[in-house]
Design a protein that fits this description.
Number of strands: 22
CATH class of the domain at 8-75 and 162-237 and 318-381: Alpha Beta
Strand order of the largest sheet: 6-5-15-16-17-14-18
Largest sheet: 7 strands, mixed
Structural class: alpha+beta
CATH superfamily of the domain at 8-75 and 162-237 and 318-381: FAD/NAD(P)-binding domain
Low-confidence stretches: 144-150, 506-515
Number of helices: 15
Radius of gyration: 24 Å
Helix content: 25-40%
Strand content: 15-25%
Length: 515
């Protein structure tokens, strides 16, 4: 082996981002004989996760079989996110990973729907989506129908995952590839005086762990980059007005929805994620606007809830984004790189994209700073686009409470203001480098949040509105009928994975590992 090649990597953290990184590195570097250590005790909290479609690509990269993954983790599918109460009372739409529809003409599909809206019709953009129809009917399937040649609107899916079981599953796979886990914690960091790079970590069990490269995958902003290597933090409190989170895990009947739910609440917002037999709800809120007792009652079923037992409360880590994500021989992954919300894009997705980006720039032991510069440029672009997605929710949400009036006053970056303005005036979507959402997903999100264009594409001039109305009505009927032909989500899960009985997510404070 070339003496300049990396021979050892240390990963700090044992959450999903850390185990994704460990398993991914172990698989990609298997032939390079790189020693990989992962350091940290089992975290106390475990959540259910809504994972984007990129998780399937990661699984293929690591060699994970989908059936085995579903069986071992008790996971479910998700076709997208159901939005409730964001722009007016009772509003309900499903933001899917799949395109809503496609016409035969070379004009964006949303322009045809908008033409009917501008003529005074009550339109529902997701009503033309086979994925949204399937989600509402709690149906899902992957088979011959879903692999039709040239299907313009395939069912693109992510997963709903029990984080603890997923971590244990990834840990077993990483272990078979030689990754070594120690439950110690880091007490000190030793630098190389000649380079300023990290030389070793001192652990509370008395050992010193040396490595050529370090990944910080902790649940809070990276201490290695901030405290040891002097990387600054952009204050994010003004971008994320929630400081508390309450969670509740509840048993659920045999009707697992193939979507997660994002609901605007008076004091913040709540997210619901489901797996067979269990539902997890989290309420993100500001303690300046609502108290714990009211939040607990909301989670447990409303003001008349008979009991709020099982609700747990957490003070959220200080939000913010690192000024640099890679410095020297250390990179921050997932939440360690930035904390700024939980809407459409999760820290898990960031961890996957960040790992692949780092592998594309794979350094040797000298860690040429130009590689870090390029990584930081690309990661900065991605982070800025994800920031725009999060801030869009605050910008366009209804402002019928003190929390949401404060959220609406958050200063938006020019990139988001420009995107909203151009789309609202023309229906054209400005699309930037390193976007995480597809153009179709951006358009569906803007429309779902009530941002409809003031006009249609000029290429529709001369089209017969009655013909368009008839074609869209046929599309809606076809989408509903094709969705109805799919099996129920739970039936499909049992058939595909022959899943063992689901195990409830471990409560806060529990460190018991599950099979």
């Amino acid at each position: 082996m070339d003496d300049r090649q990396l021979k050892s990597i240390a990963i700090i953290g044992t959450g999903v981002s850390a185990w994704l990184t460990a398993a991914g590195l172990a698989k990609r570097l298997e032939s390079h004989k790189v020693r990989i250590d992962i350091i940290g005790p089992a975290p106390e909290n475990r959540d259910l996760l809504a994972a984007a479609p990129a998780t399937s690509a990661y699984h293929r990269e690591v060699g994970i079989d989908q059936g085995e993954f579903l069986r071992e983790t008790g996971s479910a599918f998700t076709l997208g996110t159901r939005y409730l109460n964001w722009t007016h009372r009772g509003q309900d739409y499903i933001h899917t990973y799949s395109p809503a529809g496609r016409m035969r003409r070379a004009v964006g599909f949303h322009h045809y729907v908008n033409l009917l809206r501008l003529q005074g019709e009550d339109v529902s953009f997701d009503g033309y989506s086979r994925a949204a129809c399937a989600a509402r009917q709690r149906r899902f399937g992957i088979g011959a129908q879903e692999h039709r040649k040239h299907d313009p609107c395939p069912l693109i899916h992510g997963f709903q995952i029990d984080e603890r079981r997923y971590c244990n599953y990834l840990a077993r796979r990483a272990g078979t590839l030689g990754v070594v886990h120690t439950g110690a914690t880091v007490t000190d960091v030793v630098l190389r005086p000649e380079t300023g790079h990290i030389a070793s970590l001192r652990l509370d069990d008395g050992r010193a762990l040396e490595a050529d490269f370090f990944f910080d995958c902790g649940d809070g902003l990276s201490t290695l980059l901030r405290d040891t290597l002097g990387v600054g933090v952009a204050n994010g409190s003004e971008l994320f007005p929630a400081d508390r989170r309450a969670t509740l895990v509840m048993p659920m009947d045999d009707h697992t929805p193939p979507y997660s739910t994002l609901r605007r609440e008076s004091g913040g917002w709540s997210r619901t994620v489901s797996i067979p037999g269990w539902r997890w709800r989290a309420y993100y809120y500001s303690s300046d606007h609502i108290g714990d007792a009211e939040v607990a009652r909301t989670l447990a079923g409303g003001p008349c809830a008979a009991s709020t037992d099982g609700v747990t409360f957490t003070t959220l880590p200080q939000p913010g984004v690192l000024a640099a994500f890679w410095r020297g021989n250390c990179v921050a992954i997932g939440a360690a790189a930035g904390i700024f919300g939980d809407f459409s894009i999760s820290a898990q997705h960031l961890a996957q994209s960040s790992l692949l980006r780092w592998l594309d720039l794979y350094p040797d032991r000298s860690c040429d700073p130009v590689l870090a510069d390029e990584y930081n440029r690309l990661a900065g672009e991605e982070t800025a686009r994800i920031r725009d997605v999060h801030l869009l929710h605050f910008r366009l949400a209804d402002t019928d409470s003190a929390f949401w009036r404060q959220a609406a006053a958050i200063a938006c970056p020019e990139s988001l203001l420009y995107k909203i303005d151009v789309f609202e005036r023309t229906g054209v979507l400005p699309y930037y480098e390193s976007e995480t959402l597809t153009p179709e997903a951006w358009i569906a999100l803007l429309l779902g949040m009530g941002c409809w264009p003031d006009r249609c594409d000029a290429l529709l001039n001369g089209e017969d509105p009655d013909d368009i109305r008839e074609e869209l009505a046929k599309m809606a009927r076809t989408a509903a009928a094709e969705a109805s032909a799919l099996p129920l989500h739970d039936t499909f899960l049992r058939h595909l994975a022959a899943a063992e009985p689901a195990v409830p997510p471990s409560p806060a404070g529990s460190t018991e590992a599950r099979p």
